[in-house]
Amino acid sequence: xxxxxxxYRTLFWMTGFLSFFISPIADNLTTALLMCAVVMKVxxxxxxxxxxxxxxxxxAANAGGAFSPFGDITTLMVWQAGLxxxxxxxxxxxxxxVNFLIPAIIISFFVGNQKPSVVDEEVExxxxxxxILALFLLTVATAVACHTILHLxxxxxxxxxxxxxxxxxxxxxxxLPSSLAKKRLMAxxxxxxxxxxxxxxxxxxxxxxxxxxxxxxxxLFFYGVIMxxxxxxxxxxxxxxxxxxxxxxxxxxxxxxxxxxxxxxDNIPVMFAVIxxxxxxxHGHWLLITLTAGVGGSxxxxxxxxxSP
Length: 309
Description:
71% of the residues lie in helices and 0% in strands. By secondary structure, the chain is mostly helical. The longest helix is centred in the middle third of the chain and has 37 residues, at 154-190.
């Protein structure tokens, strides 16, 4: 992006649209972490640009994640519960796009049009990078097939994907010495000292080391939240709330209000609470709560996982 000479405003829109279209596949939290790291590198030293761009990325990632089962944990919960089919999430594409574009247009007026300083840095993909990306897409397809065709829990498809990665990781470790020998020979013939230095620091790919670096604190937080919501449901508070929201209120207003509340409580417990309540709603209202809970979390930093980091 820096080498192409794009201005800050162009980079603002590029990172926003990339976040919007990557999050339905890679999850909104992963997308936000990735794109925010890119922005911090591109706009290094310009805190105003980084802040505005990161806000736009969070909004875009949450909006993009609302029209895909893999875009957010809330949509995944709705899909796993069988309330919305995989293809029916696409109905939310244009509402999600509007939820991204309106804040982005407003924020763009405050982004400067200067260009970042050009950095001539050589970047090289690690061995197996493209194949791992293909395995990731295969994992998503496997999870969808497990749930849609075989009527099995999607988690089995995701664990199968971890198996794909483990097999491929074993192949990378076994073939690493011969691969390094060939690359060193080519670098020596070309006289590329920098490449020889990089090859000297190559370490074998290990799946378990990557899993060990997962955000376990965040996972335990969600586990605790779901336990708390389950406790409230056991004691009857969720049934009381369901009576007030969905019997005394119109379901449309209730779902919009829950979307706003998700900015304070976090969208995952809100969606888990609604699914636990099991209110009698139309299919359109389930799509509405999926959208409002997904994009409502962008209002505050505690409203969704992408906003928290």
